[in-house]
Specification:
It comes from Mangrovibacterium marinum. The protein is of the alpha+beta class and about 400 residues long. About 20% of the residues lie in helices and about 30% in strands. The structure holds ligand LQZAQKY5 and molybdate ion.
């Protein structure tokens, strides 16, 4: 039997990133761009704010006139230009968001004002901020407001809107074909018979891939039979950028995936990772097409998607996914028997920001992730971690 060589997650990511060719770009409506990766820098086409803008509902005047009785020249609503310049001894009633009249350098709040019988207004406070947002103080015309490689979230859509960029250029979605291998599998609508098990991975991977801006094509279950598996993988490879498989990558008599992907002209870059769960994760490339074989156990498939497939898929869109690992104290003692691999186990972050481990039986036990708010990493060589020691948790 072919000897497998284990590599670290870091080495696996380095190799996969080197092999990743970025996808073409497309222009789409900014309203459809949430979760997509920006392909160009975006520059402001206007100043922000575009004019000296009142930050408060109140009265615009000269600072040196604060405390004096002032004649009110006009009322300035937001969206309407002032009609008068601010003259000494006068003020203009102004609304938040309205343009401050020339000559005024202060807006005092309506709560800090009083009126006399002649309808004159006076500042009643002891001091006030200017309450004016100056033209261009946030962003100047031509400023860089978003950089290529940004994942567009609501706040970035706001920035696109403010910059008038309604058709941003983004990377195309990677097309991902998903196949679940295993003669024991039935779809979730079916009641499993003896020796059968429901296909949970296929659907888990569909959602995971959709959540990282991929276009998913689901190819269903394929039995552990050479020709069927070859045909299904070949179809997915033809129709997608990435083929994501679960199962069939170990060393069993019916684990056909490695031989098929080689027969299809793919080069396997690695087929074993020193990570638990996910020992048999396999990655292969062929001319801008990729195959990721994830182990069949549902937790292995889930974790390997999160730590390996996801950053790789993002790389095809030139996005460097942040790998946040929060350093937090452990709430209870933790022990494991074997320490030959880096391991990820499900945890809950409690109200005291401590990490509680969850009862977990191993890589088939996806139910352990029901209430997990993250997974903690245990480095190679470490068997025991005591209560209060710092661990690193990736939030889910
Ligand atoms: N002699 C050895 N046997 C095994 C080794 C090994 O190193 N030497 N590694 C074990 C580890 S670790 C894992 S993980 C599995 C990986 O095996 P495969 O990727 O080939 O996966 P299968 O054998 O097809 O399935 C494993 C397990 O997961 C269930 N499964 C598969 N697909 C699904 C699915 N879509 N939804 C839900 N559950 C699924 C399957 O029924 C099996 O129980 O190999 C070990 N063996
Ligand atoms: O690699 Mo297996 O995924 O450890 O259970």
């Amino acid at each position: 039997m072919e000897k497998k060589t284990s590599i670290t997650l870091n080495d696996a990511l380095t190799q996969a990133f080197q092999a990743a060719k970025s996808l073409p770009t497309e222009k789409i409506s900014f309203l459809k761009a949430s979760g997509r990766i920006l392909a160009t820098d975006i520059f402001a086409d206007v100043n922000m704010p575009p004019f000296n803008k009142s930050a408060m509902d109140g009265y615009a005047c000269r600072k040196e006139d604060l405390g004096q009785w002032l004649n009110v020249r006009e009322v300035i609503p937001a969206g309407k230009s002032p009609q008068f310049k601010n003259e000494p001894g006068t003020c203009s009633k102004i609304m938040t968001g309205a343009e401050v009249p020339a000559g005024a350098d202060t807006v005092f709040m309506v709560e800090q004002s009083e009126a006399n019988d002649q309808q004159q207004i006076r500042f009643t406070g002891s001091k006030t901020n200017s309450n004016i947002c100056l033209r261009g103080e946030d962003v100047k015309t031509g400023d860089l407001v978003l950089t290529a490689g940004t994942m567009l979230k609501a706040q970035h859509i706001a920035i696109l809107a403010a910059a008038g960029c309604t058709r941003p250029e983004v990377y195309q979605k990677p097309k991902v074909g998903i196949i679940s291998t295993g003669s024991e599998l039935v779809e979730p609508t079916v009641a499993p018979q003896a020796s059968q098990i429901r296909n949970s991975n296929g659907h888990q991977m569909r959602i995971q891939a959709e959540q990282c801006a991929c276009e998913v094509n689901y190819y269903g279950i394929v039995a552990d039979e050479l020709e069927q598996t070859r045909q299904r993988i070949a179809s997915s490879v033809n129709e997608n950028d990435v083929t994501l498989l679960s199962g069939g990558v170990s060393v069993g008599d019916f684990d056909f995936v490695p031989q098929i992907i080689q027969q299809l002209g793919f080069q396997i870059l690695f087929n074993q990772m020193a990570v638990k769960p996910g020992k048999h994760t396999t990655f292969a490339i062929n001319n801008g097409k990729y195959i990721i074989g994830l182990p069949g156990n549902p937790v292995s498939s889930f974790i390997q998607f999160e730590i390996f497939a996801k950053p790789f898929l993002y790389r095809l869109m030139n996005y460097t996914a942040p790998m946040i690992a929060l350093p937090l104290p452990l709430a209870n003692d933790f022990h494991r028997k074997k320490a030959d691999r880096e391991e990820y186990v499900p945890v809950k972050i409690n109200r005291k920001n401590e990490v509680e481990t969850i009862s977990y039986h191993g890589s088939a036990h996806i139910h352990a992730y029901h209430q997990a708010t993250g997974f903690m990493s245990i480095p190679t060589g470490v068997t025991t971690i005591s209560k209060g020691e710092t661990v690193h948790v990736r939030p889910l």
